[in-house]
Write a structure and sequence with these properties.
This protein has eleven helices and ten strands. The protein is α/β, with parallel strands linked by helices. Strands 6-7-8-3-9-10 form a six-stranded mixed β-sheet, sandwiched between helices. Helix 3 packs parallel to helix 5 and helix 8 packs across helix 10. Bound molecules: adenosine-5'-triphosphate and magnesium ion (MG). The site of magnesium ion (MG) has 2 residues, from helix 1.
Length: 298
């Protein structure tokens, strides 16, 4: 059998570093995302997930490393070139980020008015198609204040889809939604990925969502991707019984604790170790006495 040709990633992050002042949030992050796949990025609060997403869309500058989208390094790219790249990506921000003074249709039309020369009636048709995709066509003339949280997410998604992006980024798409609405958004993410063939990067710490939508999953820890693996791999780690878990490498035990939401495990031990160190030193930055967890895979 002839070997499959190497697939080129649509997103390729290498050695990405982000510092805010003297605080290093991202510290040598590598990640490849391949065409059509749904990559779920997980990690604790404040671990740098949103920062990573913002660097990937070119709205936050990296301190070092490279991020290629469609084979082009966007780090240090000029605004005009960056805007061309941005036309090929859609972003659903956590809040939905809709303009309250505009109707839902107006919000979805905005990227088309700003970035294309299409006639208004063609834009209208495009808007209807996008609203139909997210199940909001009947609500086109409502204002954001008149619709529910789940509908706002849908509207934000319709706007993210306006320019027919090749990559969709989602920051916590189901945060703040009830379980049923959240499951509906998951269904929509899966549908869009299948219908449109888009590549998706989804940040979430809702584990039900993560396992429902992911092809592959990545765990962000201490500024790096600890493990990037298939959903099935993560499911196996999650479902490893207690009796077998102690034999796992620490990185896997950490992931297992995160996925299961267990009260005990490496994450808790590390927190205890760092607060003990803080205590001894009277606060400030924790010294490097934390149990170190080595990445096992790319
Ligand atoms: N503009 C900024 N200036 C200074 N520090 C920042 C800035 N943006 C983020 N940070 C810091 O970087 C760290 C990572 O933040 P980020 O929002 O990326 O985390 P997150 O993983 O998305 O967290 P959450 O799960 O709470 O959304 C935090 O400690 C945050 O305080
Ligand atoms: Mg965040």
């Amino acid at each position: 059998m002839t070997p499959e040709p190497e697939r080129e990633p649509v997103i390729r992050c290498r050695g990405v570093v982000k510092r805010f002042g003297n605080k290093t949030v991202i510290d040598g992050l590598d990640l490849d995302v391949f065409p059509g796949e749904t990559m779920v990025v997980m990690g604790g609060s404040g671990s740098g997930k949103s920062t990573t997403l913002r660097m990937m869309i070119g709205s936050v500058e990296t301190s070092a490393g490279s991020i290629e989208l469609f084979g082009k390094n966007i780090c240090g790219m000029r605004e005009r070139a960056l805007n061309d790249v941005r036309k090929k990506i859609g972003v659903l921000f956590q809040s939905g980020a809709l303009f309250n003074s505009m109707t839902i249709a107006g919000n979805v039309a905005l990227p088309l008015q700003e970035h294309t020369d299409l006639d208004p009636d063609i834009i209208d048709i495009q808007v209807k198609i996008k609203l139909e995709l997210v199940g909001l066509r009947e609500h086109a003339d409502k204002f954001p204040a008149e619709i529910s949280g789940g509908m706002k997410k849908r509207a934000g998604l319709a706007r993210a889809l306006a320019l027919d992006p090749q990559i969709l980024f989602y920051d916590e798409p189901s945060a703040g939604l009830d379980p049923v609405t959240s499951a509906e958004i998951d269904r929509l993410i899966i549908d869009l990925s299948k219908k449109l063939g888009v590549t998706s990067v989804v940040i979430t710490h809702e584990m039900d969502s993560a396992f429902a939508i992911a092809d592959r999953m990545a765990m962000l820890d201490k500024g790096k991707m600890l493990v990037v693996e298939t959903r099935e791999w993560y499911e196996r780690v999650r479902d490893t019984p207690d009796a077998d878990a102690h034999a796992m490498p620490e990185s896997q035990r950490l992931i297992r604790q995160f996925l299961r939401g267990d009260a005990e495990g490496p994450i808790t031990e590390r927190k205890a170790a760092s607060s003990y160190a803080d205590d001894l030193l009277g606060g400030g930055e924790a010294p490097p006495v934390l149990p170190s967890v080595e990445p096992t895979r790319g």
